[in-house]
Amino acid sequence: MSEKKYDELAVKVRQHEEAIAQLLEIVAVTNRRLSELDGNHDEPLNPYSFT
């Protein structure tokens, strides 16, 4: 593999790592927010509950 090709692949891997890290941050923030919203209810929400 040429050095140029290796460098290009290294850049793409780095970009993907950064994108994945950003997505994980978004998921973490969303999960925290959902936990906060769920904590505002007396009972957990259950879409299959008929009572």
Automatic annotation (TrEMBL):
Protein name: Uncharacterized protein
Organism: Lentibacillus persicus
Organism phylogeny: Bacteria, Bacillati, Bacillota, Bacilli, Bacillales
